[in-house]
């Protein structure tokens, strides 16, 4: 959504310009791709710690296709 995109822009700007650490919790792969690091959780346990590029490559679509 437009407001979500605006908020992400503000958070990323604060991180880049002021060095503020931002923790984002999301189920949206596109939002995760805009970060420096993607930590994946399943059932309360950490199951992955990747760069956004590695995370996006690890996603698969139904029928075995890659995203």
In brief:
This protein is α+β, with helices and mostly antiparallel strands. It has helices at residues 2-18, 29-33, 52-58, and strands at residues 38-42, 45-50. Strands 1-2 form a two-stranded antiparallel sheet.
Look at the helices and sheets and give the structural class.
Answer: alpha+beta
For the largest beta-sheet, the strand count, sense and barrel status come to: 2 strands, antiparallel
> Share of helix among residues?
40-55%
Strand arrangement in the largest pleated sheet: 1-2
The number of domains is 1
Number of strands: 2
Q: Tally the helices: what do you get?
A: 3
Q: Which spans have pLDDT < 50 for at least 5 consecutive residues?
A: none
- How much of the polypeptide forms β-strand, as a percent range? 15-25%
Gross geometry: globular
Mean pLDDT: 88
Radius of gyration: 13 Å
Query: SSE order, as H and E?
Result: HHEEH
Q: How far is it from the N-terminal to the C-terminal residue, by CA?
A: 21 Å
Structure notes:
With 67 residues, this protein is of the alpha+beta class. The protein has one domain. It has helices spanning 2-18, 29-33, 52-58, and strands at residues 38-42, 45-50. It has a two-stranded antiparallel ribbon with strand order 1-2. It is globular and about 35 Å long. The relative contact order is 0.13. It comes from marine metagenome. This is ABC transporter domain-containing protein. InterPro entries: P-loop_NTPase.
